[in-house]
């Protein structure tokens, strides 16, 4: 008897993603920017932690006119390494990397599609020849 291995799924050669893993309390999120395999859950053990992101604005000095800032800490060398080996950032991480100046604003580039001109019809339409078929069978 042969063993059934179940349905097979193809996984891309480099199936790593750069994404956010949530930490912190309820209504006070704090994120780690991590490299993790594409098929693993959000908060599983990552391959590497690249940095942190605090989306809650940290107030400056009370009464000052300066705006509050959101904190992003990022290891630039390791981030560039993972992007270089093909790790794909999630939508939010790509937005953060654009703000940090790592990714260009037009990233991802639109795929180049070739426009194919329709081929002209070279053959003439075939003529239909009708044959008389009797509905009575001869013996």
TrEMBL record:
It comes from the Eukaryota. It comes from Spathaspora passalidarum (strain NRRL Y-27907 / 11-Y1). GO terms for biological process: mitochondrial translation. The lineage of its organism: Eukaryota, Fungi, Dikarya, Ascomycota, Saccharomycotina. This is Ribosomal protein S16. GO terms for cellular component: mitochondrial small ribosomal subunit. Signal peptide: none annotated. Pfam families: Ribosomal_S16. Belongs to the bacterial ribosomal protein bS16 family. Gene3D superfamilies: 3.30.1320.10. The keyword Ribosomal protein applies. The keyword Ribonucleoprotein applies. SUPFAM superfamilies: Ribosomal protein S16. GO terms for molecular function: structural constituent of ribosome. Keywords: Ribonucleoprotein, Ribosomal protein.
């Amino acid at each position: 008897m042969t063993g059934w291995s179940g349905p097979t799924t193809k996984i891309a050669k480099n199936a790593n993603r750069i994404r956010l893993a949530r930490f912190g309390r309820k209504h006070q999120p704090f994120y780690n920017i991590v490299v993790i395999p594409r098929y693993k859950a959000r908060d599983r053990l990552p391959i590497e932690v690249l940095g942190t992101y605090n989306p809650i604005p940290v107030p400056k000095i009370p009464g000052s006119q300066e705006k509050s800032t959101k904190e992003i800490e990022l290891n630039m060398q390791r981030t560039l390494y993972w992007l270089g080996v093909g790790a794909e950032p999630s939508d939010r991480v790509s937005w953060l990397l654009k703000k940090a100046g790592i990714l260009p604003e037009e990233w991802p580039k639109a795929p180049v599609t070739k426009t194919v001109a329709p081929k002209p019809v070279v053959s003439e339409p075939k003529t239909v020849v009708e044959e008389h078929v009797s509905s009575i069978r001869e013996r």
